[in-house]
Each structure stands twice: as C-alpha cells, then as structure tokens.
Design brief:
Blueprint: E1 2-13, E2 16-26, E3 31-42, H1 44-58, E4 65-70, H2 73-80, H3 83-89, H4 98-111, E5 114-117
Parallel strand pairs: 1-4, 4-5
Antiparallel strand pairs: 1-2, 2-3
Length: about 120
C-alpha cells in the first residue's frame, strides 16, 4: 500500500519557539490524518527532522511503499546525497541532532521510504 507523508517544521528564532506538522495519506483508502506538536526552544532543522522521525514512528508495517515529501534540503539531501553514510562512518562527529539522526537511520532501514524534496510554500496543499 502506498503511504504519502508530508512534513514541515519551523521555529521563530533559531533557536526559539517551534514545532512540526505531519499529514499522512493513504490515497487508495481515501484516508488521511494529521499530527503536530510545539516546543518552547528548538531549531528549524530539528523540527524538520523530528517531523520525519515522528511520521516514520507512526507506521505500523514495514511492507508499505512510503513516500515522504519535505521542504527541508537538510533532511532530503542527507538521504538523497548519501550524507548519512559519512556521518555514520565518522561516528556522528560534528553532526547536529545526532539523537534524531540515529533514530532516523533505524526507522529508514526498517521502512525504506523514498524522500522527495518539494519547494516550501508553493501551494502543494
């Protein structure tokens, strides 16, 4: 089954107040659900990554065709440009948000999602 996940993260000030939003859709079942959460002190990149990690944590089966759409070059390029393998090889040295990246790698290996970068605020939804 194809599952489409749209994520976004933001904050006011960097660090500052922030949060994330997630829209998960299963087109063939005409199903969708949203999730969001706010934080008092965070960064934009942390919220972008936390949105993806949280969405992957909500998946029940690793047998689905997962497509994640994000406007974060930080997240999309880490996967699509294979930055993560270098980070792992170097033991996460000088990587921001290593706690979330480690969790992401675990979930990525389980669910094998495709990440798609989309331009933010371009009327996708």
């Amino acid at each position: 089954m194809r599952i489409e996940i749209y994520t976004d993260g933001a904050c006011s000030g960097n660090p500052g107040k922030g949060g994330y939003g997630i829209l998960m859709r299963v087109p063939e079942k005409n199903y969708q659900k949203t999730f969001s959460k706010g934080f008092r002190k965070t960064t934009n990149n942390r919220m972008e990554l936390l949105a993806v990690v949280t969405a992957l944590e909500k998946l029940k089966s690793p047998e689905n065709d997962i497509h994640i759409y994000t406007d974060s070059k930080y997240v999309a390029d880490a996967v699509n440009q294979n930055w993560i393998s270098g980070w792992v090889r170097r033991g996460w040295k000088n990587v921001k948000n290593p706690d979330l990246w480690k969790k992401f790698v675990e979930l990525y290996q389980k669910h094998k999602p495709q990440l798609h970068w989309i331009k933010g605020h371009a009327g996708h939804f």
